């Protein structure tokens, strides 16, 4: 089938690459000539694992072209996908100008019959608005549920396909294009997609409904994810206050088959190009119809507060952050992407800089930090840790799980480790000599503190460094005790306990 994709952003290019992979002839149009020219030269403007593999294969089979001439791609297409951006305006309103421009381009270039498919996330009623511009061409809502980093598996092995139209033949045309995906009968695909395919039930669930219902389903899905994470972040604060371990709480909750384990991971808050924008838009959609949307608003508020977690925790150790060197491990809003749109790191940096801290960051994908404020970029985690007064895990890049913690600690000025993603093993961090603080989980209690004269020179050095550090105000001073580096397991029975109690968390 000939398919046109309008918009060469993340959703457009992932959709184009996947549709070409299942055998369609796909043309991508974008008003940005420079982007099209880059794509023609094989340059993908963002990180998305395996998208380049899909493009190479599709280009080799001449199933994927890029053009800045609308006629080249729309002229003989049976389906036209709208995948343009819908940024937030103030007060959560959505800027529909790109969608409406794209619709007008379709109107100017469309053949006699083509089904127009809106995949851009847009307020309920947008498909109707596009329809009024394009009558008699049928316009269908087909929300995308693509998460960055796993977008190809999300497209090719979806949990469901939602089609919003009252026109049965338009729905049929779109479902025909998705036939291989629905039957879970894919050509050779990258390993993560194959893996997802193995555990997916066939056929993929398809929901055909009204445009309004499809449009709301997308917002409701994203808002539900936000509510879940914000809920666990609130439980994490309660866990902190009562001395419970939120990771184990999340595990216990997620094992309930009615709840499930996903999106229960506490941290420094959710971000990215979709969730914050979509939850604000849903709140606005509701309030414009006189519905208060209290849960949605609360989830958003909890998330805003959560972004202050780093500054709050550091202030429990340091009366002032003036000239304290704080190293951020990660910047992107989640691993496997270089996307900084609405990343919690933006607010964390601005708060720390505002409090006078010297902020240094290392992120494997985000190398340009100038836009974040007056902060420095480190070449690697060791350079980041050098002379630091605290390290903060901001993004849970998998490689951070294997960091040489002893070495990191040895080059720091003060061995404080804030794990904003609960990624690291608290017992291992403590054994390496760190004062470990997670989100809603405490380090195991250090019951056996060495007498000062029994401590090694290294331990004494660290103890002295800690002399400058203030403990959390309402916690006993011993809370910042740690077993000390280099002690054998037999000397530290509390650490054995830590290992047992943290098993299965990661
Ligand atoms: C999201 C939706 O998942 C996707 O369906 C939609 O189409 C686009 O928006 P994405 O923005 O790529 O995808 O990221 P996602 O994986 O959903 O994570 C969003 C944020 O939530 C990240 O900041 C992540 O760190 C955070 N998160 C996620 C948590 O804090 N805890 C969790 O348990 C899961």
Task: Furnish the topology, listing elements before pairings.
Layout lengths: L1 E5 L3 H12 L3 E5 L3 H8 L10 H10 L3 E4 L2 H5 L4 E4 L14 H13 L5 E4 L7 H9 L4 E3 L9 H6 L4 E4 L3 H10 L1 H5 L7 H9 L6 E4 L1 H32 L3 H9 L20 H14 L5 H13 L2 H9 L7 E5 L14 H11 L3 E5 L13 E2 L3 H5 L4 E4 L11 H7 L4 E4 L6 H6 L3 E4 L18 H11 L25 H10 L4
Parallel strand pairs: 1-2, 1-4, 2-3, 4-5, 5-6, 7-8, 9-10, 9-12, 10-11, 12-13, 13-14
Helix pairs in contact: 1-3, 5-6, 11-13, 11-14
Bound molecules: uridine-5'-diphosphate-xylopyranose (UDX).
Describe it:
Strand 9, helix 16 and strand 10 form a beta-alpha-beta unit. Helix 1 packs across helix 3 and helix 11 packs across helix 14. The strands form 3 sheets. The protein has a 6-stranded parallel beta sheet with strand order 3-2-1-4-5-6, with helices on both faces. The chain is globular, with a radius of gyration of 26 Å. The protein is an alpha/beta fold and 506 residues long. 42% of the residues lie in helices and 11% in strands. Uridine-5'-diphosphate-xylopyranose binds next to helix 11. Uridine-5'-diphosphate-xylopyranose (UDX) binds next to helix 11.
Summarize the entry for a quick read.
Helices cover 42% and strands 11% of the residues. The chain is of the alpha/beta class and 506 residues long.
Total number of helices: 21
Distance between the termini: 44 Å
**Total beta strands:** 14
Q: How much strand content do the residues show?
A: 5-15%
Strand order of the largest sheet: 3-2-1-4-5-6
Ligand inventory reads: uridine-5'-diphosphate-xylopyranose
Query: What percent of residues adopt helix (DSSP H or I)?
Result: 40-55%
The largest pleated sheet is described as: 6 strands, parallel
Secondary-structure class: alpha/beta
Contiguous runs where pLDDT drops below 50 for at least 5 residues: 448-465, 470-506
Shape: globular
Mean pLDDT: 89
Report Rg: 26 Å
């Amino acid at each position: 089938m000939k398919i046109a994709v309008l918009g060469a952003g993340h959703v457009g290019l992932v959709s184009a690459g996947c549709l070409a992979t299942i055998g369609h002839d796909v043309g991508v149009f974008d008003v940005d000539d420079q982007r099209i020219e880059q794509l023609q030269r094989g340059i993908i403007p963002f990180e998305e694992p395996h998208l380049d593999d899909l493009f190479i294969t599709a280009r080799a089979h001449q199933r994927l072209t890029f053009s800045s001439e609308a006629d080249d791609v729309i002229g003989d297409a049976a389906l036209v996908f709208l995948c343009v951006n819908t940024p937030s305006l103030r007060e959560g309103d959505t800027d529909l100008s790109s969608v409406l421009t794209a619709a007008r381009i379709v109107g100017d270039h469309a053949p006699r019959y083509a089904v127009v498919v809106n995949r851009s996330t847009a307020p309920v009623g947008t498909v109707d608005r596009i329809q009024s511009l394009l009558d008699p061409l049928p316009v269908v809502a087909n929300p995308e549920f693509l998460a960055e980093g796993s977008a190809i598996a999300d497209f090719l092995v979806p949990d469901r396909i939602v089609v919003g139209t009252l026109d049965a033949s338009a729905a049929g045309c779109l479902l025909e294009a998705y036939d291989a995906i629905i039957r879970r009968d894919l050509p050779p695909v990258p390993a993560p997609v194959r893996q997802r395919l193995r555990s997916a039930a066939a056929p993929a669930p398809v929901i055909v409904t009204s445009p309004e219902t499809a449009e709301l389903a997308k917002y409701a899905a994203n808002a539900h994810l936000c509510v879940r994470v914000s809920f666990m972040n609130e439980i994490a604060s309660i866990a902190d206050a009562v001395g419970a371990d939120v990771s184990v709480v999340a595990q216990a909750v997620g094992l309930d088959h009615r709840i499930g384990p996903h999106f229960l991971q506490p941290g420094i808050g959710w971000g990215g190009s979709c969730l914050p924008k979509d939850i604000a838009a849903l709140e606005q959609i509701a309030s414009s119809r006189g519905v208060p949307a209290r849960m949605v608003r609360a989830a958003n508020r909890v998330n805003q507060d959560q972004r202050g977690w780093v500054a709050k925790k550091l202030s429990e150790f340091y009366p002032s952050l003036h000239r304290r060197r704080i190293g951020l491990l990660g910047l992107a809003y989640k691993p496997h992407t270089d996307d900084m749109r609405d990343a919690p790191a933006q607010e964390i940096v601005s708060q720390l800089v505002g409090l006078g801290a010297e902020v240094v960051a290392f992120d494997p994908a985000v190398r340009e930090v100038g836009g974040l404020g007056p902060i420095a970029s480190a070449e690697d985690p060791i350079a980041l840790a050098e002379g630091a007064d605290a390290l903060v895990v901001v993004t849970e890049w998998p490689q951070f799980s294997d960091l040489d913690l002893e070495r990191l600690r040895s080059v720091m000025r003060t061995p404080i480790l804030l794990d904003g993603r609960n990624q690291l093993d608290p017992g291992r961090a403590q054994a390496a000599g760190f004062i470990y603080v997670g989100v809603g989980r405490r380090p195991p209690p250090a019951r056996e503190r060495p007498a000062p004269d029994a401590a090694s020179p290294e331990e004494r050095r660290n103890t002295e460094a800690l002399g400058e550090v203030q403990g959390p105000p309402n916690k006993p001073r011993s809370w910042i005790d740690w077993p000390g580096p280099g002690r054998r397991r037999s000397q530290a029975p509390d650490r054995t306990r830590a290992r047992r109690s943290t098993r299965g968390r990661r």
